[in-house]
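tmp note - Transmembrane channel-like protein
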Amino acid sequence: MAQPLTFVLSVPETPEDHGPEPSPYDESEVHDSFYQLIQEQSQWVAEEGLELQQREPGPPETPGSGHQTLLGPEDPLVHSTATLRILASMPSRTIEKRFLLVKELQGLPVAQRDHVLRGMPLGLAEKRCLREESRTLTRKRRGRRGRRGLLPCCGRLRDACVLALHSLGLGLLSGLHALMPWRYALKRIGGQFGSSVLSYFLFLKTLLAFNALLLLPLLAFLVGVQAAFPPPASPGAVPAFTGLELLTGAGRFTHTVMYYGYYSNTTLNQPCVPPLDGGQCSREADGLPYNMPLAYLFTVGVAFFITCITLVYSMSHSFGESYRVGSTAGVHAVTVFCSWDHKVTQKRASRVQHDNIRTHLKELLAEWQLRQVPRSLCGRLRQVAVLGLVWLLCLGTALGCTVAVYAFSELMIKSPVSTEQEGALLALPTVVCVLNLGAPYLYRCLAALERHDSPVLEVYVAICRNLILKMVILGILCYHWLGRRVGVLKEQCWENFVGQELYRLMVLDFIFVLLDTLFGELVWRLISEKKLKREKPEFDIAGNVLELIYGQTLTWLGVLFSPLLPAIQIIKLLCLFYIKKTSLMANCQAPRRPWLASHMSTVFVSLLCFPSFLGAAVFLCYAVWQVRPSSTCGPFRTLDTMYEAGKVWVRRLEQAGPSVSWVPWIHRYLVENTFPVYLVSALLLAVIYLNIQVVKGQRRVMYLLKEQISNEGEDKIFLINKLHSVYERKERRAGRTQEAEQLAGDLDTW
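out:
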């Protein structure tokens, strides 16, 4: 009887075949095994080929013969590991592998299971299928365990409670996200209007965080403590609330924790409860060691120091993020092929992502086209002349506004306002707000004559001009408050007046921003569309950003005289977010010339740090160290300067005993001595400089790596061309050989 033929796949084994098999859920091992299998098979097919050896009965060979032992018909089949891998990849074995994969996933914790599924090189539908199957097996196992142990109803009740708690947690988390005004709106703004307009709202979000950080210590250690232990009532009658205080900040608000004059200059004590036998309070019972003057000075100083550290860190981080990548070369292909997030399934989210990618491509192409357009020498000279003329007109406008503010402030000093005429207190803030609103419109008209090629340069120039105007006006106001008003209001609380002036400036600035939004954007949009038949106006990035910096500077200037100004600034910023977002969607269009705002956040934070925060810090330091406080109000009424509160406290500690002698030493050598201040400033500047150098080094390394990648690509093209030429020569040689053989055959035939 004929023996059945047996075939074996002769595949040489490798040393790796004797190692452990890779786990089905280990992504890297699966990738490596598949890659090695494909590479080995390709090499064997190309060089040696796969030989099918027929097995015939015969005597077994010796181990040293060098040939593989042939098996008889009754012997079991023995395959190498490589053969087993090839057989395992057959369709009939796929179901078994899938079952094993699901079984191993089912044995993992939920978090690790999701992590493993997320990293597998599979489609989203396949990952969902595997997750559902693993969950189904887990539920079945829990159900069998519950039937063996607990009652089925108890198991279902437990699962229902767990799911309810999980759903409640997700609902609370989504509710917290919904409370953030920038959760979805920022994505929509970036998709429709680009990164340039988005930078304004991101900067507004940053200011909200700064003000919240500034307000927390003031509420905890200053406002809350004074509200819990109010000072004795003033001898005069407290005025009733009339509603005008919301604009002027005077009247009823003067007798609240809103202003500096309300805070006491004593150590706050717990109310004394006399004992039942009629004795007096003991010394330990009535003491609450909380020195209000020291707490006032220390809290404001610590709040400013925290803000300074946060600003420097934010500026450094923003600088590193925006300047880390040196150029946008090669980013077009990455944006086209790698920007889409395939996990997005909702229609609304996919539309927003589509708009973001489209707008980003427009900005990249506009930046690339801008580099390709050179300008002639005559055009450059003409532009320089126009720029010089426009700058002279802008500086003249800023000088005229400064003179107007100074003259009006002197007029207000010569004709003081009585307490019955609270409305007249709004005169100077109104003049300042009108100038701050009107001058930027004049700057925009003059900027139309310049015709900058780059929209980024146009925005930077507008920011510089508006910044000069606002900083000069604020400088005149600071001189008016600390140089003129202090001498005029000798017998009054000049700190309250300065706090009220800053409050009025903030409130009127918000009102004028609303008027500008209504008439400057809504009415102009209606006129442009109905009468002029034009498109909607663009969003003024420079003017709106400078309004934010101006309002934040007012907050920092007034925090010493009105500790609740950061809270008012937070409310103002929240209102501005919704108002500007609504006006942007309804009244504005995307920039006609899209541009990539890669460094705008860094520029905004830098302007907020150096001209704004630094100027406010100098103003407050001068008020603390040089200006004499009022003798009728506030926590420093009996001192020559506010800084003396620290000296008085140190002298008391020196008299207390040797246990706290280290505190006067710290004050003498670290606070009064100027060397530590200079040392800390030098270290801070050194850290900033080193960070800049590190970022520059990273940019240089990235540039070299990009060049290396480009060179490697050229090397690959060169090798491919060489291989192609070798292949063509081989083909031509084979063609000539075939023609020679054919010719020889023809000759033999003849």
